[in-house]
Structure formats: C-alpha cells, structure tokens
Design goal:
This protein has 424 residues and is of the alpha/beta class. Helix content is 45%, strand content 16%. The strands form 3 sheets. A 6-stranded parallel β-sheet has the order 1-11-10-9-12-13, with helices on both faces. A 5-stranded parallel β-sheet has the order 6-5-4-7-8, with helices on both faces. Helix 2 packs across helix 3, helix 5 packs parallel to helix 7 and helix 10 crosses helix 11.
C-alpha cells in the first residue's frame, strides 16, 4: 500500500540514493573495448549471447522496412503519423537563428548555429517496444538539420526488429537502422565498426548497461543524459478525482520497480481516497507485480498545508514529470522552477506527453531538472561565436586587452595584439 506522510524530508521523498555499479561498470568497460577492437564480429556474437539471434546483416534492409509497413494495420499507422505531426509541430518552434551585432569602428560580433553531422539514437527493443521513443528522438534531430541519423535497437529472437519500431523510424526520417542493442551498440556508435558509422552524439533511453555505456563513452562522443528510474509527482487539491490521480501514479510505477510516484496534497480526504484507489487499480494491471513493488517501496503521499507549499516541495524535488491537478493550474505555472515536463489540469495525464501531445518525453531524472532540460532540437546543434575587428577597432581596444593579458602574466597574448597595432 502507498504510504501517507504528514512529516516529510524532501531528500527522502524520491528514490535517489547513489548505488554502486562496480560489477556492471566493469562488464560495460569490457564490452566497449571488445567492440572497439573487433567491430561487427563482436556485435554479432553479443547478439547471439544476449538476444538469442543469429544476425549476419546488421543493417535493416529496405525490404524489411516494407515488410514492417505491410504488417501493421492502417489505423495504427495513422496513429503514428498523428503523433509525428504533433511532435514535429512542437519541435519546429524550437529552431533558433543566429545573431549579428554591428559596433562602431567596423566591429562585428555574432553567433551561428550548426547542426551536428551524425546522430545516433538508441531505442530499447527485444521484449519491449517503444515507437514513441523513435519519434521523440529522431524528429528533433531531423528538424535540427542533422545530415545522418542512425538508430540502433535490439532484435527479437528471430533476428527481426519489431514492425512498429521500423515504421516509426521510417516515418520520422531515419537514415539507417542497425540490429544491435545493449552496451555493445553504444560502443558501435561511439567508435564505429565496419558497418555502423561513428556518430557525434548518442541519445535515447535504455537499461543500466546502456546508461553506463553512454556515461563511459562521453567525451569521445556527446550524449543527451544519463537517465535514471522514471518519476512522477502529482500536486492535487481536494477537487481532484482520486481515480485520476491513482491512475497517473501507477502509469509511472509500472515502468520499473525503481520508479517513484509521489502525490503532494493539502487534502487529507484526497490522500486516503487515492490510497484506496491505488489498491483497486493495482488489481487490474498487467504489470501488477512491478507496479506494486514500486508503489510499496518508493510511492508516497505527502500532506502539506497548501498548494503553494506543495509547489515549494516540488521545486525542491525537481521531478521528471509534474502534474498539477487543480482547477486553476496556470496560476501555479510561473511558480514552478524545477521540472522536466509539466502537465496542467485534471485532463492532462502524463501519458499524453509520453506518446502524443508533442513535447519531448526524454526528460531529466534524479533531480537533474534543476540544471538540465528535455531533449530538444538544441541537443542536435552547436553554437559558435564569431568576431571581426578592423584595424581601427583593434587600435582602440589594444591598451585594455594588453593590460588585461599582462595582469594574468601572459605576455604572449599581449604581444599578439601589440604587433598588429599601428603606432601614431
């Protein structure tokens, strides 16, 4: 049963203890080194070992894309296309333009945006299927102007990628898809193999081995984030429907036994009603065992004196997903300073964001919303500044620059300015 607390410590609300993964870290390190040394051969062996699949051609063929499209019912394909349209509309608004500043003496300062050359997208597969992740991770990259987007994903035991994954990838505009998953696929993207090209940045969720692999290759390539267990925090008052709130808490609890679901409310009646509704709803869930363990281990209902206090608690936690289930949610929007994605009102369940609404569902976890943001077009572009000075502009700045450089003991810096200055 989900527990109710009247006395709480913010640090204890979410499951954010730092675990030691020494064994897993070592296993990942070995896999990375093996793939770096042997390339495709190592990937094929790991495919047999971890997926039970005998894969000889790592790249998904055009015929496989066509078969996947034929295998899906028209109504499902239309759902994918509807979601794509929503995601595309939202992310197109994120495109930024550079700027240029013209100063006196002919000086020009500016900033330009350049898309990365090649992005790698990891999509979980095998026993699971996440076409939503395909759309969320590929569409922003294509909007940013990335020249080549390649995707890696585990296969089923028959050596095939699930049809819905391939259809979503093609709809999103992927350039190549490769049949490999786990830490070995991250190594392939980071170092390149005979078949899989080295990328500039890797994005996408995955299990602990995938996350540790991303962490270890960072620096050789860029990564979006190291994601932890899923989180939801619901702020609700006495007007909220306890059935809705319970369902939303469980929508995240079913992800993983380590997932965390928290309700913060100023209504004791709502707290007890939600507690009862969670128990009822658990009995109806296909993933009941996972959800129950998550709720019993990490689930919490926090009682506080007001919704403003609930907002304060939420800002201290910086949750991945935040729902504000009150009649006037926009009254609180500007007060929220730390959250991955915010769901406003009683008819905006978090699942809308997972699949369909448009904003990205790849979000910072573990309190990282204090300093990081959802995956976006920005993740696939680089910013470069540029500077242009005329002779006159340099002459006017030289005294300040040379004095600054000398104050830091860098006379070479000062000299590089001084040799260009025309003495009066």
């Amino acid at each position: 049963m989900i527990k109710i607390y009247e006395n709480y410590s913010t640090e204890e609300i979410l499951n954010r203890k730092i675990d030691s993964y020494e064994k897993e870290e070592l296993a990942v390190k070995r896999i990375l080194a093996d793939v770096a040394a042997r390339g495709d051969g190592a990937l094929i062996e790991y495919g047999k070992k971890f997926d039970g699949a005998d894969i000889q051609n790592l790249e998904v063929s055009e015929q496989e894309f066509e078969e996947a499209e034929r295998a899906l019912p028209p109504e499902y394909k239309q759902i994918i296309l509807n979601a794509k349209a929503n995601i595309q509309l939202f992310h197109e608004r994120q495109l930024k333009k550079g700027f240029s500043i013209q100063k006196q003496d002919g000086i020009i300062l500016g900033q330009k945006y350049t898309p990365i050359e090649r992005a790698g997208v990891y999509v979980p597969g095998g026993t699971a299927s996440y076409p939503s992740t395909v759309l969320m991770d590929i569409i922003p990259a294509k909007i940013a102007g990335v020249k080549q987007v390649v995707m890696v994903t585990p296969v089923k035991a028959d050596g095939k990628v699930k049809a819905e994954i391939l259809f979503a990838a093609k709809a999103a505009g992927v350039d190549k898809v490769f049949k490999t998953g786990g830490a070995q696929s991250i190594a392939a993207l980071a170092f390149g193999t005979q078949t899989i090209p080295k990328v500039d940045k890797i994005v996408g969720p995955g299990n602990i081995y995938v996350q540790l692999a991303k962490k270890q290759v960072f620096g050789n390539v860029g990564i979006d984030m190291v994601a932890g267990p899923s989180e939801i925090l619901v702020i609700a008052d006495g007007t909220a429907n306890p059935v809705f709130v319970a369902a939303d808490l469980l929508s995240q609890a079913e992800h993983d036994v380590l997932a965390t679901a928290v309700l913060v409310t100023n209504s004791k009646q709502l707290a007890y009603n939600v507690q009862a509704e969670v128990e009822k709803a658990l009995l109806l869930m296909q993933r009941q065992d996972i959800a129950r363990k998550s709720i019993e281990t990490n689930g919490k209902i926090i009682l506080c004196e007001s919704i403003d206090k609930a907002v304060e608690i939420s800002n201290g936690i910086a949750p991945e997903h935040l729902e504000i289930c009150v009649d006037n949610p926009f009254d609180y929007l500007d007060k929220i300073t730390n959250a991955g994605s915010i769901f406003l009102g009683k008819y905006t369940p978090e699942a809308l964001g997972d699949y369909y609404a448009g904003p990205n569902h790849t979000l910072p976890t573990g309190g990282n919303a204090r300093f990081s943001s959802p995956l976006s077009v920005d993740d696939f572009v680089k910013k470069s500044s540029y500077i242009y000075y005329t002779q006159e502009g340099l002459n006017n700045a030289c005294a300040d620059v040379m004095a600054f450089a000398k104050s830091e003991g860098l006379d070479g810096h000062a000299r590089s300015v001084g040799v260009r200055v025309i003495k009066a």
